[in-house]
Amino acid sequence: LLLVACASPQAPSSELLAARTAVRNAELDPAVPSLAPVELRKATDSLNRANALNDQGASLAEVGSAAYVATQQARTAMALARAKGNDAAIAGAELERERARADMRSAETRRAQAQTSTAQAQTTRAREQTAAAEQRASGAELQAAVAQDTRARLAKDDDAALRQRHASLSAREREVLARLAAGKLNKQIAGELGIAEATVKFH
């Protein structure tokens, strides 16, 4: 009777179990496949080799060595993913800071432009008010000049009229007028000129 013995795989060592856990955790971390795919593939390959050695009944030292490599590569993949994630977060934060600075500069620019526009509007209004005041002053000066000219013409006309009226007086009327201008009374004038007081009043 020929008995054929079939070798069964040996139980996994603690190193192999630890490697399986490490690689599994790396695979489940959403950042690792996207940020450290090469390192994750190396860890997976090393774990497959450790599993194969264990299934082949290799020595515990050989299996443990391959499992250790897989564990370290899985940890490296997770650490690299975290580092890259941190770098991305830092870059994102810096980008946000730059955006905030840009927004502040834009706001300051808009504020300065608004202040400039307000100052320009105030300057324009001041110029318009000054022009209106100058126009009113010119109008007043013109009115004053017209009024002065009118008064001068009236005075000239009055003087001419007086001269004309004086020229039309008789010699006796001029004598009476001269004495009236000197402040003499009608009775005095009549006595000096040898005429009746009624005649003086008539003149």
Structural account:
- With 203 residues, this protein is mostly helical.
- The protein is 85% helix and 0% strand.
- The protein has 7 helices and no strands.
- The protein has helices at residues 14-28, 31-35, 37-55, 60-167, 171-181, 186-193, 197-202.
- Helix 1 (14-28) runs antiparallel to helix 3.
Poorly predicted spans: 1-7
Q: What's the SSE pattern?
A: HHHHHHH
Strand content range: under 5%
What general outline do the C-alpha atoms trace?
rod-shaped
Overall average pLDDT = 86
Q: Class by helix and strand content?
A: mainly alpha
- The first-to-last residue Cα distance is 190 Å
Helix content: over 70%
How many beta-strand elements?
0
**Radius of gyration based on Cα positions:** 62 Å
| Most strands sheet | none
The count of helical stretches stands at 7
Primary descriptors:
203 residues; 7 helices; rod-shaped; single chain; 0% strand; mainly alpha
Sum this structure up briefly.
With 203 residues, this protein is mainly α.
Topology overview:
Blueprint: H1 14-28, H2 31-35, H3 37-55, H4 60-167, H5 171-181, H6 186-193, H7 197-202
